[in-house]
Specification:
This protein is mostly helical. It is 65% helix and 4% strand. The protein has a domain at 21-82. Helix 1 (22-35) runs antiparallel to helix 2 and helix 2 runs antiparallel to helix 3 (60-94).
């Protein structure tokens, strides 16, 4: 799985094994933030993913794949925001109103 030569473009950088692309790791961090309900962190990860995926010139096919990934992440983030908004609305409606 790991390349044996260091610095030859064969999969290692500065003696550390290259495991996945940066975009894969950012997407994983995005998913973890969503799983933990960390909306602001997920939004930051989405911005970072956008920079990594669309920041450099790409072929049309790669660009379409990147846009599909970003679209899926954006949909998940919006669903999480909506669910959190609905949950806070239900919680506030269930609290007794204080007399003025």
């Amino acid at each position: 799985m790991y390349a044996s030569a260091v610095g030859t473009g064969s999969g290692e950088t500065a003696g550390k094994p290259f495991r996945r692309r940066l975009s894969d790791r950012i997407e994983e961090a995005f998913d973890q933030a969503c799983d933990q309900g960390q909306i602001e962190v997920a939004a930051c990860m989405l911005k970072g993913l956008d920079l990594v995926l669309l920041g450099q010139p790409q072929s049309w096919n790669r660009r379409q794949a990147a846009l599909g990934t970003l679209r899926a992440c954006l949909i998940r983030l919006e669903q999480l925001r909506l669910a959190q908004t609905e949950a806070s609305a239900v919680t506030s409606a269930a609290l007794p109103q204080q007399a003025a």
